[in-house]
């Protein structure tokens, strides 16, 4: 959706790093995401789409966490 990956050269490292960011740094901003990705070389994208994709996942996870589950609402 964000055109994060193109040639595949960096895909394995980017996916591993993205998962680490999402699980370890749920409140990461763009600057922190870029810092965390700085050890991976991407020859195609310039990192813009990759950062957007990671932020999209982080934002979606935060939005889901903010919505109470139906079971929680029933017990409240």
Helix coverage percent of residues? 55-70%
- Beta content: under 5%
CATH architecture level-2 label: Orthogonal Bundle
The CATH homologous superfamily is named [2Fe-2S]-binding domain
Quaternary structure of the protein: single chain
Provide the residue-averaged pLDDT: 89
- Give helix and strand order, one letter per element, not per position: HHHH
Query: Mind telling me the CATH class?
Result: Mainly Alpha
- Uncertain stretches of 5 or more adjacent residues: none
- Say how many strands there are: 0
Report the CATH topology name: DNA polymerase, domain 1
Question: Main beta sheet: strand number and arrangement?
Answer: none
The value of Rg in angstroms is: 15 Å
Count of domain modules? 1
- Head-to-tail CA distance between termini: 37 Å
Task: Kindly describe this structure.
This protein has 4 helices and no strands. The chain has 76 residues and is mostly helical. The chain has a single domain (11-67), classed as DNA polymerase, domain 1. The radius of gyration is 15 Å and the shape is elongated.
């Amino acid at each position: 959706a964000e055109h994060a990956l193109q040639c595949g050269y960096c895909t394995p490292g980017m996916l591993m790093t993205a998962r680490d960011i999402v699980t370890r740094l749920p409140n990461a901003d763009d600057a922190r995401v870029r810092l965390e990705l700085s050890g991976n070389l991407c020859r195609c994208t310039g990192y813009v789409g990759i950062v957007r994709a990671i932020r999209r996942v982080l934002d979606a996870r935060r939005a889901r966490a903010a919505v109470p589950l139906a079971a929680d609402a029933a017990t409240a």
